[in-house]
Amino acid sequence: MKVVSTSKSHGGVQGVYSHTSDVCACDMTFAVFVPPQAKDGPLPVLWYLSGLTCTHANVMDKGEYRRLASELGLVIVCPDTSPRGADVPDEKDNWQFGCGAGFYLDATQEPYAKNYRMYSYITEELPAFVAANFPVDMSRQAIFGHSMGGHGALTIALKNPQRYRSCSAFAPIVQPSTANWSRPAFERYLGSDEKSWRAYDATLLIEDGKRFPEFFVDQGTADGFLQDGLRPWLLEEGCRKAGIDLTLRMQEGYDHSYNFISTFMDDHLKWHAGRLG
Amino acid sequence: MKVVSTSKSHGGVQGVYSHTSDVCACDMTFAVFVPPQAKDGPLPVLWYLSGLTCTHANVMDKGEYRRLASELGLVIVCPDTSPRGADVPDEKDNWQFGCGAGFYLDATQEPYAKNYRMYSYITEELPAFVAANFPVDMSRQAIFGHSMGGHGALTIALKNPQRYRSCSAFAPIVQPSTANWSRPAFERYLGSDEKSWRAYDATLLIEDGKRFPEFFVDQGTADGFLQDGLRPWLLEEGCRKAGIDLTLRMQEGYDHSYNFISTFMDDHLKWHAGRLG
Question: Which residues form a coiled coil (chains A, B) (predicted)?
């Protein structure tokens, strides 16, 4: 593990680290906040998955999670959103595909299958790496995220309900396989057989029988992606049919930015802390 | 006034605006946070001056001031740190001079005297512009800042004690006219006669008889600029001799970054709010 930077914050340490990922076949960078309570033993860990165009840094800079994470004693891990590097295929001018747009899936199509394996990276390789290098109690994990990262959190929780005690999201893409801004990426990563897309689509996973006890979702009403890209009502309908307890809060006047996320960050941290014990 | 962007945050509005500055002879950008209490009438205004290399955006993104400013009912104004633009003389590779390094002074030397007039901009032009365009009570103003902006806050308060009800700083440059990282800028903006530099140097202004009732300063002990650039003990000595009430907190292990600033932002906002009534 390479320590990129560490900085004291709210009594804890905000670090940025990199390591060589076998799964993504490139170096990967991630951020970890360790609160001061870590000196007394391992702490619960909350995973934050970021949205399109982001790296680990966006939420680290703008998410405003450290003050309350320090109070609550939560380790916060913020991974990158895709593989990166000179050897990773990318389309520089396309913010909805390639670098910054990994969609938390394992690509099956060439030339993306070698690097674009964010599902395995987030659920297997990085957790093992974090468990080995940080003061975390891996029996107490939770996951949340924003937009594409909300999609990541919901789908990963549905596929690994035993792993995470809680899951929440800010403005998640709840049905990426039918949204115009994500369909092209799904086709290129996963091929034209749309059946294979269902494994990475929260509402379709629920339709196919996957379950998670409860979700907590905040969505701004002034979010420019609400109508075409995010469509939380599809999750609402899916959860209702499946008997999944969904708390969906439509937040009047809030947009898709970190001004929205940071406003409701405290609520999400408290909600997860209450379930992480 | 041009509205660059507005975004709802913590119940208020974080905006970015630009206007044509006569004083700096260029367009200037600044950020204003207006909390929800503004619907009931004008609010006190707290000025935040940023450090070297920063624009209005650094503290807006990383300062974590909105949650508590919304609770306390404070308007927060975050100006840029220098004039900018194609017509503004600059040295691209010098982070301690030119754009991003206005030092809150009025330059007297060519070719800088035309644009580098941040003292007049911050104390005259921008306050008038803010008063005309935002719901602020200009009889209740306070000022704070970081590093070069801490220098700005201290010197501006000392020269305008009737204007500001309170002044605080994060890791301020307390004696820029004798610090190696700021002397070259002072010489080029103000000329070789060091007497003229004293008007923009907090500890020398105090030595020359300027007074402000009290200062509140936080300084990290792991700040890489502490020994050579910041030297808070010089302010401590100056305030002691002058009978100025200084609260100087040395914060163990904190560096010069926004991780330090955001950790203690709440304390500063509460301190100012208590004095703004």
Answer: none
Answer whether A81's CB lies under 8 Å from A122's CB: no
B258 contacts on A by Cβ (under 8 Å): 61
CB A144 within 8 A of CB A169: yes
Residue type, A212: F
For residue B250, CA distances in Å to A224, B65, B73, B223, B260 come to 45, 21, 28, 10, 11
| pLDDT tens digits for range B161-201 | 999 999 999 999 999 999 999 999 999 999 999 999 999 99
Q: Which stretches of chain B sit within 8 Å of chain A by CB? A: 7-11, 14, 61-62, 64, 66-67, 220, 222, 253-255, 257-260, 262-263, 266
Alpha helices in chain B (DSSP H): 57-62, 66-72, 118-120, 126-133, 148-159, 183-190, 202-207, 232-242, 258-276
**Edge-first strand listing for the sheet containing A43-49:** A2-9, A12-21, A26-34, A75-79, A43-49, A136-146, A164-170, A214-220, A245-251
Q: Which structure tokens are listed for B110?
A: 């060519």
List CB contacts (< 8 A) between B254 and chain A: 8
Write out the H or E segment, with its range, that includes residue B165.
strand B164-170
Sign of CA dihedral A160, A163, A166, A170: negative
Report the complex ipTM.
Answer: 0.95
DSSP A6-75: EEEETTEEEEEEEEEETTTTEEEEEEEEE-GGGGGS-EEEEEEE--TT--THHHHHHS--HHHHHHHT-E
User: CA-nearest residue of chain B to A65?
Assistant: B64
Q: Decide if pLDDT at A233 tops 90.
A: yes
Residue in this structure with the two tokens 């390479």, named with its chain if needed: A2
pLDDT tens, A67-89? 999 999 999 999 999 999 999 99
Please report the pLDDT score of residue A277 as a whole number: 87
What's the rounded Cα separation, in Å, for the pair B132 and B49?
Answer: 20
CA distance readout (Å), A218 to A38, A109, A124: 30, 33, 27
